[in-house]
């Protein structure tokens, strides 16, 4: 139990730190690298929750595919300039944004520690989830059953979503005349 | 678990997807706009037929695909609205596409896919499905905003829309995640069951609610999440703007009401929710109406006007929530008024926008002063557009008057008199700016004298919209007879248990 | 002294660390000797001798190379981003080594699938083993992209971007090609996949010929080997992402490339060729299974070298087109065929998907060949029985049969080579 807590705290700190790095770095590539680290740490969170499949897929899709494309574009476009020359149009914007963010974090953590109640139904839902994992021997099967059985409908709609995304990319990517 | 008959429940959406794919394939072989538009328009008959068949045969709510698909009167009502939007859009965009946009086939395909997303948003009872449907609605809108490839304003609009849309989706998902964490399920019925057991004072529910409202606030352009609307409405191609102003908004409300009412959020801690939504409604009303009054660009004015209209709808939603714990039947009258209002708003706004498309196409300008003296140059268009604007303002003879009356009376009866008073004052402001356009069109001296002849598809659209508006005015009671069970059906599944 | 091994958790950790260290030593040695073998084999194929001076048969050549690399100056170009420049080769190697962790290199020591020991010859048998390999090897592109970017050299950047595009494109086909195997095995665990092949009595190459062909092609592209070694195409990009690297850092990149090669070879033998099994031969003697596995891997490594010595480099646009327009649809087709067979037939009907897959392979070979002839990029020796060269190729020298020389002057650019009787075709 203590091991879990210690590893959670370490992971949490690392994740938040790298996530802050994403927005704090001036160099776009450093931000992208920081984001990759964040995603890898998230995979470790899943690992800690015994969700091996999700953890590996998280690495495969986010770190392995999506971020590669990010880096691809960023290195191609921003290779010459070291720092993004962003004009700060509204000077007080950053301060107010940070303040509002802090308020949100404070409010959420206050509510999380005081307001959350886990009711009987919630517990039973969580229980049925555990049941499913044991029934289907291993999380891969459980995940597959959830995806292609219970969540078949959004899964299929997602394929439409991808068609639309490809179509939109085509429309924008096509040369004008 | 899974039966073939489940697919029948999904038949309108499936046939619409097939139609979109067919249009996409046809677009590969022929570049003739008339073929593509005709196929899209004729193809819409199939989903319309399915929806009518379902409306006639189904009396109670049906669920399928593990309770993710919910076909009740409420979703059928919205399906009708979205199909009306699709049909009007095909007609209204026909000429504009030929003139400004090279990607005609893509425009129709994107529009049809977006309509599929809207219909799914209204007919799912599960958070993940709602989110996916929301994205299916939004992605085509992002692409449509940027279709004017030569215009930097259009590209800027597309980029802003994507960024803010992604942002709002993130906030929405955060809310969904909290709801899931609290209840352990993404099924709205399951969530409603869980909320029965929650006592007052579960603060996390409020946070989840606020995040969800913020997320949908972007989609329905409610203040303070409205900032994107004027820029994007101005930059995007005008038919796309018309589509954003009705489709995205109606779908946003469809899903928001589905979550708040069907998901049983009113069973938990209600007061903060009402306060939050009420403040949002008031801000939306005031800012939308007053900002619209000072605009010179007609598309920006319509943007603020559509923000203001969202305010009226929110008043109805707040009123419903106020009463839902005490009296379901009474509370449902608020939703019924909202449904009627949305239907009228959709038809009116589409009519007004097709008028604006036609007139700005002909005059070549989007400033209000470009519309001077149009009465002398194109009487039919001017009269129809003016009727639509009058309806938006809520002037008595037209349907817009009734829709506002229903919302205000419902809100008054359900115990929100202050909201009604603010909304009334705001609609007086709205008369000023709608009236200004009408005045400019009818009484100012025209710049040029020659007659303007609108293209046939646009004059058909605007005539049809105006005719529909007048018909709606006549058959108010019939529509209400459909809206009332639709509103009740949101409560039905909860009461049944 | 070894009391601490009684605690199962501690024992597991110790065993894993020891096995991991062993594996790293094995892989690094294999890398060192792969460089020697590659040079020798390529030399043989090209009619040269290859390095044979250091030690007997040149066996100490890797040692000499290592010493040379170690004492080279460690330069950091002035235009480079130092931190990432140093980090990039390390990322490459670490990622390459990690991927191998789930490959079973032999049978359980007890030779019984039911009895496990912490010392069994694989580091971890996780139930998503195959996905682990895919996901970790998908990270290997970072080493290349970052190396190319941080060098601050246009050639490096272009080479790195090419490699990123190539690896992302072929990764999709690679993953899809493997999913046919997953359908038959019903598991992602590498150990289970081998045992399933034993249960079914076949190697999955028999049920998945199409999947295997796609996998091998995609794998060659994935590890940036010839004929898909575009990222380091020297005519176009000097040395691609390696341009600014020298010494140890350069050899780290080389090390990553060879280890990746070993990994994809190991995956190919495990998934399609029954891993460490050989028709029950290894049942009694577990150590034999490791030898057999090594032989299988060695075969694939030889295949890589063979390909490099035989095939010319493919053009970049053709490479991308081939990946997206040929391999990816074929991989999808393979999934459809396999899914239908598995769902409708079951284990006994593996031959249906085997025959269908083989048929597709043959048809595609003919189609591609025909396409090549139509485009004028392919030999067509059908008409006259003698080789006809495409118009795009001009010959300086061309090897001919001695007896044909006097009566043959129809080929326009054939010159009489005074010295080069054994020379190969030289393209200009």
From TrEMBL, chain A:
<comment type="function">
    <text>NDH-1 shuttles electrons from NADH, via FMN and iron-sulfur (Fe-S) centers, to quinones in the respiratory chain. Couples the redox reaction to proton translocation (for every two electrons transferred, four hydrogen ions are translocated across the cytoplasmic membrane), and thus conserves the redox energy in a proton gradient.</text>
</comment>
<feature type="transmembrane region" description="Helical">
    <location>
        <begin position="32"/>
        <end position="49"/>
    </location>
</feature>
<keyword id="KW-1003">Cell membrane</keyword>
<protein>
    <recommendedName>
        <fullName>NADH-quinone oxidoreductase subunit J</fullName>
        <ecNumber>7.1.1.-</ecNumber>
    </recommendedName>
</protein>
<dbReference type="Pfam" id="PF00499">
    <property type="entry name" value="Oxidored_q3"/>
</dbReference>
<keyword id="KW-1133">Transmembrane helix</keyword>
<feature type="transmembrane region" description="Helical">
    <location>
        <begin position="55"/>
        <end position="74"/>
    </location>
</feature>
<feature type="transmembrane region" description="Helical">
    <location>
        <begin position="6"/>
        <end position="25"/>
    </location>
</feature>
<feature type="transmembrane region" description="Helical">
    <location>
        <begin position="95"/>
        <end position="113"/>
    </location>
</feature>
<feature type="transmembrane region" description="Helical">
    <location>
        <begin position="151"/>
        <end position="172"/>
    </location>
</feature>
<keyword id="KW-0472">Membrane</keyword>
<keyword id="KW-0874">Quinone</keyword>
<dbReference type="GO" id="GO:0005886">
    <property type="term" value="C:plasma membrane"/>
</dbReference>
<keyword id="KW-0812">Transmembrane</keyword>
<keyword id="KW-0520">NAD</keyword>
Automatic annotation (TrEMBL), chain B:
<keyword id="KW-0830">Ubiquinone</keyword>
<feature type="domain" description="NADH:quinone oxidoreductase/Mrp antiporter transmembrane">
    <location>
        <begin position="126"/>
        <end position="427"/>
    </location>
</feature>
<feature type="transmembrane region" description="Helical">
    <location>
        <begin position="240"/>
        <end position="261"/>
    </location>
</feature>
<keyword id="KW-1278">Translocase</keyword>
<dbReference type="GO" id="GO:0050136">
    <property type="term" value="F:NADH dehydrogenase (quinone) (non-electrogenic) activity"/>
</dbReference>
<feature type="transmembrane region" description="Helical">
    <location>
        <begin position="273"/>
        <end position="294"/>
    </location>
</feature>
<dbReference type="GO" id="GO:0012505">
    <property type="term" value="C:endomembrane system"/>
</dbReference>
<feature type="transmembrane region" description="Helical">
    <location>
        <begin position="161"/>
        <end position="183"/>
    </location>
</feature>
<keyword id="KW-1003">Cell membrane</keyword>
<feature type="transmembrane region" description="Helical">
    <location>
        <begin position="76"/>
        <end position="95"/>
    </location>
</feature>
<comment type="function">
    <text>NDH-1 shuttles electrons from NADH, via FMN and iron-sulfur (Fe-S) centers, to quinones in the respiratory chain. The immediate electron acceptor for the enzyme in this species is believed to be ubiquinone. Couples the redox reaction to proton translocation (for every two electrons transferred, four hydrogen ions are translocated across the cytoplasmic membrane), and thus conserves the redox energy in a proton gradient.</text>
</comment>
<feature type="transmembrane region" description="Helical">
    <location>
        <begin position="203"/>
        <end position="228"/>
    </location>
</feature>
<protein>
    <recommendedName>
        <fullName>NADH-quinone oxidoreductase subunit N</fullName>
        <ecNumber>7.1.1.-</ecNumber>
    </recommendedName>
</protein>
<dbReference type="GO" id="GO:0005886">
    <property type="term" value="C:plasma membrane"/>
</dbReference>
<feature type="transmembrane region" description="Helical">
    <location>
        <begin position="6"/>
        <end position="29"/>
    </location>
</feature>
TrEMBL record, chain C:
<feature type="transmembrane region" description="Helical">
    <location>
        <begin position="258"/>
        <end position="279"/>
    </location>
</feature>
<feature type="transmembrane region" description="Helical">
    <location>
        <begin position="201"/>
        <end position="221"/>
    </location>
</feature>
<dbReference type="GO" id="GO:0005886">
    <property type="term" value="C:plasma membrane"/>
</dbReference>
<dbReference type="InterPro" id="IPR018086">
    <property type="entry name" value="NADH_UbQ_OxRdtase_su1_CS"/>
</dbReference>
<comment type="function">
    <text>NDH-1 shuttles electrons from NADH, via FMN and iron-sulfur (Fe-S) centers, to quinones in the respiratory chain. The immediate electron acceptor for the enzyme in this species is believed to be ubiquinone. Couples the redox reaction to proton translocation (for every two electrons transferred, four hydrogen ions are translocated across the cytoplasmic membrane), and thus conserves the redox energy in a proton gradient. This subunit may bind ubiquinone.</text>
</comment>
<feature type="region of interest" description="Disordered">
    <location>
        <begin position="401"/>
        <end position="428"/>
    </location>
</feature>
<feature type="transmembrane region" description="Helical">
    <location>
        <begin position="285"/>
        <end position="307"/>
    </location>
</feature>
<dbReference type="GO" id="GO:0009060">
    <property type="term" value="P:aerobic respiration"/>
</dbReference>
<keyword id="KW-0472">Membrane</keyword>
<feature type="compositionally biased region" description="Polar residues">
    <location>
        <begin position="412"/>
        <end position="428"/>
    </location>
</feature>
<keyword id="KW-1133">Transmembrane helix</keyword>
<feature type="transmembrane region" description="Helical">
    <location>
        <begin position="350"/>
        <end position="368"/>
    </location>
</feature>
<keyword id="KW-0520">NAD</keyword>
<feature type="transmembrane region" description="Helical">
    <location>
        <begin position="170"/>
        <end position="195"/>
    </location>
</feature>
<dbReference type="GO" id="GO:0016655">
    <property type="term" value="F:oxidoreductase activity, acting on NAD(P)H, quinone or similar compound as acceptor"/>
</dbReference>
